[in-house]
Amino acid sequence: MAKNVQTVVDKVGLLAQAQAEYEALVEEIRDHFQQARQLIEQAGELSGTDPQEAAQVRQLLDQAEYFETLGNRKDGHERLEIHRRINELEHEVSSLKEVLQFNERVLARQRQALEDAKEEAVAMVQRAEERIQETERTLDYQIARLKELEGKADESEAYT
Questions:
Q1: Model pLDDT for residues 92-141, shown as the tens digit of each residue
Q2: 43 Cβ contact partners less than 8 Å away, ≥ 6 residues apart
Q3: What span, in angstroms and rounded, lies between the C-alpha atoms of 124 and 117?
Q4: Span 29-39, average pLDDT
Q5: What is the distance of C-alpha 24 from the center of its chain?
Q6: Domain ranges of the chain
Q7: Distance from C-alpha of 120 to C-alpha of 92, rounded to nearest angstrom
Q8: CA distances (Å), origin 65, targets 52, 70, 109, 115
Q9: Rounded to two decimals, what is the model's pTM?
Q10: Comparing C-alpha atoms, which of 22, 29, 20 is closest to residue 80?
Q11: Is there a contact between 43 and 54 (Cβ–Cβ < 8 Å)?
């Protein structure tokens, strides 16, 4: 039972970790797209008429494209992979909680059965002790009766 509880606690911890990773990835994706937008804005602020500015605009747009590609890639596979992992962990946690609840109910029934068995055992011991006492009383009566009869028999022999 303690092992099941620890397993649930461990899985909940893994789930929280996966959710934190997911949130961090979402934030990283947002940052990539934000950086791309900022670079595009910077490129738009330059006139592009000067050859040096044109090169700088091209460099800024290349960097923006890189961040958009990076954001799209992370938004695709990595995000889906973490989301899948979260779903699996949520399912495992749910299943383990069900198993844990089932085991708690089984344990409660077993404890009740143990208490019932203890009560029955006490009752059986009491009945056995009562039978022993009854047998002892019967035996004492029979011994006393035998002595009484033997005493009368001895008196009869003495008269004869």
A1: 888 888 888 999 999 999 999 999 999 999 999 999 999 999 999 999 99
A2: 56, 57, 60, 61, 64
A3: 10
A4: 80
A5: 26
A6: 2-126
A7: 41
A8: 20, 8, 64, 72
A9: 0.47
A10: 22
A11: no
